[in-house]
Write a structure and sequence with these properties.
The protein has 1070 residues and is of the alpha+beta class. It has 6 domains: 164 residues, Rossmann fold; 189 residues, Topoisomerase I, domain 2; 112 residues, Topoisomerase I, domain 3 (Distorted Sandwich), CATH 2.70.20.10; 122 residues, Topoisomerase I, domain 4 (Orthogonal Bundle), CATH 1.10.290.10; 258 residues, no CATH class; 98 residues, Cysteine Rich Protein (Ribbon). It has 33 helices and 31 strands. The strands form 10 sheets. A 7-stranded antiparallel beta sheet has the order 14-11-12-13-10-9-15, covered by helices on one side. A hairpin with a 2-residue loop joins strand 9 and strand 10. Helix 3 crosses helix 4, helix 6 runs parallel beside helix 18 and helix 10 packs across helix 13.
């Protein structure tokens, strides 16, 4: 009986024929230079019996699918028609000789044995071979072999156990091929034709793939998270104690808090206790688990991380090792070994190696442990493992040896015992807070002795603490930290995301990653690795999206798909349907109908909103036509010129602010977009409740409103982000004394006009003569009476161009071209732009001369009239657009230096305190000046000044303490400053003090309630000034009893030991 056997690769055909033929193989040449026919004799244990066997092979898919002739040309039809077009099979031109060889050999054969790889693609390729053979011999009997490695006994067993081809897997691949062809062709033609208007892309193919774009989407999404990341401050408490001459650091159980006041009050409460108590000492065994058996995904993830080799190269090397018979089949989802695999015999083959031979021998002696069983089993292949031992000099390259060594070490680690250690955990209680520390002592390395890619080291041993013991603390501190930005995606992380989200299969993940690299949608750059990693000599790469990649993702996201093509949801849903086809739960016809119609509707929507897509793409490619299309494409993407406006200087600055050129490493925005960043600069806003200033570009999110809004970070007052009239009467909602504002509105209007006239005079002087202090000596007689809020009513809005500012992280990314860092370049541009307005410096100098007491904030002066000299440069968008392309950043002229830019005075001096006056505070008998002098001399705190009688004629201020001042205190010493208690005359720290009558400081235990109870004040005091001008202090109980809930003058920040009622204190604090 004559049998034709067909393998998927020439090397597999040669290896199997050698095994089954017992070394007696007759080789015949074919017309294909890579494929040969191998004739052997073999006796099957089923009806084929002793047969004459010819082994041959293919090299991948023999058949390719394409559209009918009328749809082949790109301009022959609307891409939308491709969704309904008929596709026809044709023989791949490169496989014509292989096709003819199968036809010839199958004519005289009675049986056809398929030995292709045991996965979906292998099943489909086997079907292609069957269809070709039946053209020549319709009656040929077909069988299918299942095998996962080239070990001799395994192959012989597989030859004696034939199966039928799984038609459900064949249908799944056929459905996927038709779907990918139609959707990919339609969207690729759509994108390519759309982008031909951009000269650098005129001859490029902008391909689309249902796996390519979600893969690209992962990279762009992480890139955006990195670029838009804003660091956030947090606070924690650190405790250090000495025990038996050993210093021990204890970490806070809460880890960190993002509210400084809460952390400070907790820390203050802890400081009341001199000692801490050891509440628990736990000593327990701990294990570090050995890895699961190796799957394809884990091989790629760990290989890219530990070996520094790309996933594409890892899979190519693994395929080579497999075809040579060194390892098992490298495409598997199984992470558990079946009981019929002789693991000890596989270990025994590794005992002669110089590096891991002794460890393998120890496993055979006594340390062998059955590998852990994972949750995945594809019931086709075993986990990846070494089949035979290979010496280092038998492998062609260093990377081959790296991959083979990793597979061997991983296999030996799977068969080892877990690493074992002893862990000690000590918990300390200081006040009401808990702190912990731990130590680890490794007892047995076990699998870590051979698996060098992971580390588990012993830490410094801890002293022998005793439970219940009281210990003294050597050092405590409330420390401040900042959250750190996430890093860009590494290949290992990208593979994990694709696997979790079902993008591609375990065997195609590497191909999709390579595809987006080849298409230049992303590029790789080296990443500094963590020093703790074992493989420090291997480079880890991270993925950065190119301008084109970002534009494509943003374009499809902006179109408004419910499920964007750049998101993984559509492809994940499709992969689940393909799996259902394999399981018999879904048909090929249903799959094609549902999915092709879904993508057809998406295509129609994209075509309807093509203007949106063009606009997004235009942003990043507006100026790329300046490059010759013959230049290298990748170079063009990374050298987009950034043109910006440099001709808006005032005449007096022209000699200083000349046109300069810089080298931009990369630009992700066009010129107009860049200039718009200046227009949308950060306006300092003033909170009308607490008078704190903060940048308007720092949004905070309110969970109840579920929308972006602006809130004062000090008092949490909601400020509108849409309306410039943010200085509305919020105080009137919170303070009954705000009636001053209504009663004196006419007086306030006069002040506004007075101030505007002053600025008009300043403008006239600036136009006629140079700026000097003498010219302004009589401009403002009494700036103390100028109210900030009066000067910035809605009739006189703050100018948009006063303090231009660029968010560097959102405007550019780094590529390896250019000679200046982006941060340096953008900072120079920012300073140059700000100085070129010709106004800011004069206003600041004016403010420094006349307002050195800092009674008003120069950041919020209405200076719109100062810009009347520049209407054509700032106020008219058309003029700006006409001037956008005047200056080009190029590598030829990089002649600007920091010295070329005139210095800019700071808007405010770094005073110890800042004092702001709300609009309804009036000056009586120069009391404001007296208050300021006392305040700035640091002799009296503003809160005490408002609640005492040390300053004359301060009645109006006393009635309006809430929201009148914004105080930036000095940094507190570790345990606060020291003073004397007014009652016991003993020393008192800031953290222990409580404000008493006449600005005195009291111990909490010494301050008695002015009510009937006479108790000590240990839970917060409520203060009131009586008719005689003396302060009385009440506890909360007496206040509610005597004053019937009347709103107090102030609430002192005095907390009880139990830290109760945080929220109430936060809401009512001054």
């Amino acid at each position: 009986m004559k049998i034709l056997c067909v393998a998927e690769k020439p090397s597999i055909a040669r290896a199997i024929s050698d095994i089954l033929g017992g070394g007696k193989v007759h080789i015949r040449e074919t017309k294909d230079i890579y494929n040969k026919n191998y004739d052997i004799r073999f006796k099957f244990n089923f009806n084929w019996g002793d047969s004459s066997v010819t082994f041959t092979s293919v090299r991948g898919h023999l058949i390719e699918w394409e559209f009918e002739e009328k749809f082949k040309k790109w301009n022959s039809c609307n891409p939308l028609n491709l969704f309904e077009a008929k596709i026809i099979p044709t023989v791949n031109k490169d496989m014509k000789n292989i096709h003819d060889n199968i036809l010839k050999e199958s004519r005289n054969a009675q049986g056809l044995y398929i030995w292709t790889d045991c996965d979906r693609e292998g099943e489909y390729i086997g079907t292609e071979v069957v269809n070709i053979a039946r053209k020549a011999n319709p009656k040929i009997e077909v069988k299918r072999a299942h095998f996962n490695n080239l070990e001799r006994m395994h192959i012989i067993k597989a030859a004696h156990r034939p199966f039928d081809i799984d038609q459900r897997q064949v249908n799944a691949v056929a459905a996927r091929i038709e779907f990918d062809l139609k959707t990919g062709s339609a969207f690729t033609r759509f994108q390519t034709l759309l982008l031909q208007s951009f000269e650098p892309l005129a001859k490029e193919i902008i391909s689309y793939g249902s796996c390519q774009f979600p893969t690209l989407g992962f990279v762009v999404d992480r890139w955006k998270r990195v670029e838009n990341f804003v660091s956030e401050k947090f606070w924690s408490i650190k405790v250090i104690c000495s025990y038996n001459n050993n210093e021990v650091l204890f970490n806070w159980k809460r880890i960190r808090l993002f509210d400084k006041l809460s952390a400070f009050l907790i820390y203050e409460n802890c400081l009341l206790f001199d000692k801490a108590k050891v509440v628990s000492v736990v000593r327990k065994p701990k294990s570090k688990l050995r890895p699961y058996p190796l799957t394809t995904v884990e091989l790629q993830k760990r290989g890219t991380k530990y070996l520094g080799i790309s996933s594409k190269d890892i899979m190519t090397i693994a395929e080579t090792l497999y075809t040579k018979g060194f390892i098992s089949y490298p495409r598997t989802e199984t992470d558990q070994f079946s009981n019929d695999i002789d693991l000890r015999s596989l270990i025994e083959k590794q005992v002669n190696d110089e590096q891991w031979g002794n460890y393998a021998q120890s496993l055979l002696n006594e340390k062998f442990c059955q590998p852990r069983k994972g949750k995945n089993n594809d019931k086709a292949h075993a986990p990846i493992h070494p089949v035979t031992y290979v010496k280092k000099n038998s492998l062609k390259s260093a990377n081959e040896h790296k991959v083979y060594s990793f597979i061997v070490r991983h296999f030996l680690a799977c068969c080892s015992q877990d690493a074992k250690a002893k862990q000690t955990v000590i918990v300390l209680q200081w006040g009401e807070e808990f702190f912990s520390t731990s130590a680890l002592i490794v007892l047995e390395n076990n699998y870590l002795d051979v698996y060098l890619y992971e580390k588990w080291n012993s830490s410094v041993s801890l002293p022998d603490f005793n439970q219940g013991e009281m210990i003294e603390l050597d050092y405590t501190e409330m420390i401040e930290g900042k959250t750190e930005s996430p890093g860009h995606l590494t290949e290992s992380e990208l593979i994990n995301l694709m696997n979790i989200n079902g993008i591609g299969t375990d065997s195609t993940i590497a191909e999709h990653i390579q595809k987006i690299l080849d298409r230049k949608y992303v590029f790789k750059q080296s990443k500094n690795k963590n020093k703790s990693e074992r493989s420090q000599n291997n480079t880890i790469y991270e993925f950065i999206p190119s301008t084109l990649g970002i534009a494509l993702v943003d374009g499809y996201d902006r179109i408004g798909f419910d499920q964007s093509l750049a998101k993984p949801f559509l492809r994940k849903e499709m992969e689940l349907k393909l799996k259902n086809i394999c399981d018999g739960k879904y048909s090929k016809e249903e799959f094609l109908k549902d999915n092709i119609n879904q993508y057809k509707n998406l295509f129609i929507k994209a075509n309807q909103k093509v203007d949106i897509l063009k606009e997004v793409l235009k942003i990043d490619f507006m100026f790329m036509e300046k490059y010759d299309s013959s230049e290298n494409y990748h170079k063009k993407l990374s050298e987009i010129p950034l043109n910006t406006v440099f001709d808006t200087e005032s005449k007096e600055n022209n000699e200083i602010c000349k046109e300069k050129t810089f080298v931009a490493k990369n630009s992700l925005m066009n010129n107009m977009d860049f200039f718009q960043k200046f227009q949308e600069k950060s306006i300092p806003w003033l909170c009308s409740s607490c008078c704190e200033t903060f940048p308007s570009d720092e949004p905070m999110y309110n969970s109840t409103e579920k929308q972006e809004a602006y809130y004062c970070k000090n008092c949490n007052l909601n400020l509108s982000s849409k309306n410039k009239n943010i200085y509305s009467n919020e105080i009137s909602n919170n303070n009954s004394t705000s009636q001053h504002q209504d009663k004196n509105s006419q007086e306030h209007r006069e002040k506004i006009n007075h101030f505007i006239n002053i600025l008009d005079n300043l403008q006239t002087k600036l136009n006629k003569q140079s700026f000097s202090e003498d010219n302004l000596s009589t401009s403002i007689k009494n700036p103390d009476e100028i109210s900030l809020k009066d000067s910035i009513k809605n009739d006189y809005p703050i100018i948009d161009n006063l303090t231009p500012k660029v968010n560097i992280s959102q405007t550019c990314t780094l590529v390896p071209q250019g000679s200046m860092k982006n941060s340096e370049m953008w900072e120079l541009l920012r300073k140059k732009k700000r100085n070129s307005l010709g106004v800011r410096k004069h206003i600041e100098n004016f403010s420094e001369i006349k307002c050195s007491h800092n009674s008003f904030n120069t950041n919020i002066i209405d200076a719109s009239s100062e810009l009347s000299n520049f209407p054509d440069k700032i106020g008219k968008k058309e003029t700006l657009e006409s001037k956008i392309s005047f200056i080009t950043l190029s590598e030829a002229q990089t002649n600007i230096s920091q010295e070329n830019i005139p210095p800019i005075s700071p808007s405010t001096k770094n005073y110890k305190h800042k004092l702001f006056l709300p609009d309804h505070v009036k000056s009586e008998n120069n009391c404001i000046l007296e208050l300021k002098n006392s305040f700035l001399s640091n002799s009296t705190s503003p809160k005490k000044a408002l609640t005492s009688n040390t300053i004359s004629n301060i009645k109006s201020l006393k009635n309006n303490s809430t929201g009148a001042f914004s105080v930036k205190k000095k940094p507190l010493p570790k345990f606060g400053g020291f003073d004397k208690c007014a009652s016991c005359n003993e020393s008192i720290t800031f953290l222990e003090s409580c404000p008493g009558p006449n600005s005195t400081k009291w111990h909490k235990k010494c301050l008695k309630c002015s009510g009937k109870c006479g108790k000590n004040m240990d839970s917060g005091s409520l203060n009131e000034i009586d008719k005689d001008g003396k302060m009385k202090v009440y506890c909360r109980f007496c206040w509610d009893t005597i004053k019937k809930g009347k709103k107090p003058m102030t609430i002192s920040l005095v907390m009880s030991n139990t830290l109760q009622d945080f929220s109430t204190l936060e809401e009512n604090r001054t």
